[in-house]
Amino acid sequence: MKLHKSLYRVIFLLFIIIQTTFSSVEITVLLSGILIVVLLLVEPLKISRSLSIALSYLLGILTMGVLSSFFYKYELFDRVRDFVHFLKPILLIFVAYLLVIRIDNTRFVLRLIVFLGVFLALKHLVTLSIVDLPDELRIDRIRAKAGAGSFIEMIALIVLLAFHKQHKIIGSKSRKLFILIMSISFILYFSRTMILGLIVFLLSIYGFTKLTRRAFEYIVFVIFVFGLSFSYLFTLNLDQDEEGINKFLYKIRNSPAEVFASPANYDPRNHKEIFKHWRGYEASTALNQMEDNPANYVIGKGFGALVDLGFKAPVGGENGLRYIPHLHNGYMYVFFKVGFVGLILYLILLFNLYKQVYFKSNSFSERTIRSIISGFGVYFFASSLVITGLYNLGEISIFCLGIFLAMAQIESLKNEKLDSNG
What we know:
The chain has 17 helices and 2 strands. By secondary structure, the chain is mainly α. The protein has a two-stranded antiparallel ribbon. Strand 1 (307-313) and strand 2 form a beta hairpin. The longest helix is centred in the N-terminal third of the chain and has 28 residues, at 76-103.
């Protein structure tokens, strides 16, 4: 039995709306699992090589986490929670792929992403205009009340910037207006991760992530500009207690220390110094707790393992948490749970995504889509340092990856058919 393509379009749209509205991991996993079973029962499907490779590495990491946990006595709840967290990207990639393959219309999917991005941008701007904000510019309040970021908006902006010459998806006037709306919304998120993501995807689309002399020269130039800009921030008198744009600039300046450095001395009763290096503190604490058994470095501590912060930190709700299941640093998170073996699988997966930028095709659409897939690899490589990368619990980025993997397969089959017809 086959369903009409319009029904798949409705299901796809509803699923994205649910993803962007609700941040519950449990709802996402349950809904994804049900949809996958139903879609495969309705119409079996042969998956592409790119998807099978991605899923095989993720399944390998998931299996490693389950097996490693057998050597420890953890609470059942903690085991199940970790299993669900590591299962989520597998299900999201697969359900996105299945829906887009059944829709079988790249232009429709790209237009839907753009219109959804514009809708979310307008929603963000309207929220900013009506919420009760303090008179002074306080970025933390703005982000808390209006939103801290939107991956869909960033991808929609990327799509409009990429598909504008040989493969237009909307009219020129609408395109310019949409870019303006989403750019304003983008800036007002004050998100370091979104800025990094936009740069990474643009570099990938225009071929600057390829290992060529021209790309190397551009990358050196970009690094030089960033170096000068970053150095300039250290000449400014910035403090983390300031408000407005100065606080945003302080957070940018403090980013490397926050990720890589752990405070040498700290007072558990005074969290100010720790939070300046929070991600580094999490990672170093987790690493120290792996020393009790050398096998931990190879296979990890398994699903159910918790990181003991040494004090009840003001995270995870009003009462705070001392034992946390999740880390901001994605590499340390994977290493802590599944060891060096799992970390290698994770890096190989990211490298396989990155390699898509070298794919050769006569089709502009297929080349561009695969360049965006490559951008996902580089984006996850960078975001793994700050927001857990591919295992981020709140982002829709992994679902978007499944969308583009499916569109790459659609365009590939379309080109094969054209070539066979001469």
